Amino acid sequence: MQRSLIIIVWCCLFSVLTAQQDQSQNMFRLAQSFEQQGDHERALPIYAELFRSDSSNFVYFDAMRRTLVQLKRYDDAIRISTRRAALAPFDAGLKAGIGSLYAMAGNERAADSLWNDALATGWKNQMTYRAVANEQMSQRLFDKAIATYKKGRSEIGDQFLFANELGYLYSFILDYTNTAREYLRMLRQNEQQYDFVQSRLAAVVARRDGLAAVTAAVGEELAVKQSIPLLRLSVWVAMEGDRFADAFRAAQTIESLVNSNGQELFTFAERVFRENEFTIASDAYRLSLAKSDRPSFGPAARYGIARCMEELSVRALTAPSGGSGDSVPTFTDAVAHYSALAAEFPFSVVGANALFRIGWIRAKYLHDLDGARRDYDSVLTTAPAGPMVPTVLSAIGEILTAQNRLDEAAAVYRRMNASQYSTAEQRSMAVFRMAEIQFLRNDLDSTLGLLKPLTENLKADESNDALLLQYFVSENRLQFTPALRQFAAAELLARRSDLGAAVQEFRAIADLYPAAPLADDALLKVAEYSIQLKRYADAMAAYTTVMEEYKESTERDKTQFRIAELYHYHLQDKQKAISAYEMVLSGYPMSLFADEARKRIRQLRGDSI
After folding, report:
1. What is the DSSP letter of 572?
2. For residue 236, what is the DSSP state?
3. CA distance 492 to 40
4. How far apart are CA 397 and CA 590, in angstroms?
5. Do 151 and 119 form a contact (C-beta atoms < 8 A)?
6. Which sign does the torsion angle of CA 436, 441, 442, 447 carry?
7. Model's pTM, two decimal places?
8. Average pLDDT per run of 10 along the chain, which is 609 residues long?
């Protein structure tokens, strides 16, 4: 009987406690909902009631303190926090939090006193220094947070302690020198931290002064001791500053230390090639082969050398002076290297790519379209082309278009569209090329019909070009159909590499149809092809006409940018190029060309390192 009575009593007590707990949880959720809505006035009395019912509950205490801070009732927040701290005199984190409350209340002296007391209470525990520094950071007292971390490092006696935290804080106050030193301290402690350190420094080197600071800091570290991760960092920093010769020297040092059989230098050569530094890339490819004994990357390195020869030949061909002398490789050298690779590796990706590059050179620069077609056919028939098929078919289509064999070109693009190797993007490109062919044939209805699905799929890479061509045709076909047909005929001349005749036709269009929407486009074509013919005065005259006579043209920002490029790259007039780029920024600040104009100005002024 007595046992049964005890059980009944316990059940009753449990029910009461459960009911009270459920009520408290409901009240807490209600207060949370008010707080999330920003209604702190309604949340506070509920939190206060919960805190009075259970003042030892940290969750209730923290919620009440948080709400008081939101209401800027700092004295009340300090009062309840101080009362709680009296029950936990060794809780350094709680003291640090009270310091923040004093700082918010404007009593910085009291805040400093609490923070110093928290550090004294913490018995040189690094978590205490972090707690205090975090509170100081929350009050945007970054110098104090830095001082706290440095004090902790000194008192605990660990030179690597808080390097990550200090690196972040120094970057926040734009002290890039110490930012770099702290992150390099991390690398010195643990070389496995390389990726993390580089990611942290990436945001710093994006700024001119940051890049200078990181460059100097890396130099300081290397002067003390060389390590592979530090040398890799020096390669990266040098490349970020366009100091590719310095990067090459560092890469050679790495190769000598790791003895990778040339792999290190080959990887560097690939990186430099992507940066369009073809002379250094070629030297790195050659050195990688010299350092190796039958390397697996040998064919790829030799292909890289040929690519560098090709690109240097392009530069020599397009340079204003027509070249810089016999030391510049010619297309003949590149073709010879590609031919050797194709013969030595006939059933490989390298061999297929070499054949393709020969065809590209013949078509693009030597104007040997029949020879280029034979090379492209060889890729399809004698080499394992595979995924290269769509690219080769696209190139063949361009040749057929240039030969005015438009029906055959359209058939090739249909084949490209149907190829099992074509990606969705390549299929879209094939359809766009078919639309272009219909435009060149003056079949405007077919042009618009082919463009329609491309303009409806805005995710396709060709959708922007399709929209532009669709708008161009639609805008001009009603009132200026003869001009549109003449424009197509002129463009076909350009595709056939008869640039002189194309320029005459485009200039005639601008003269005959000055009111047509395509008149400014015709002038831009005059300028584009005149530059290719190295008739720079004619190009400038065309650009000037657009700027002076076509005030409503949507191409004015593009035209101004092209004027700057003409001064920059062809007329070699640095000051006029800077002025022209600045006019892009001042006249068209929202232009898609604005960012690139800004970058070019920095380059011309020598702002980049």
Report:
1. -
2. H
3. 71
4. 37
5. yes
6. negative
7. 0.77
8. 53 48 78 86 87 84 87 88 81 85 90 88 84 92 95 93 95 95 94 94 91 95 92 96 95 93 95 96 96 88 97 83 52 95 91 95 92 94 80 96 95 96 94 96 94 82 86 93 96 93 97 96 97 95 96 95 95 95 95 93 76
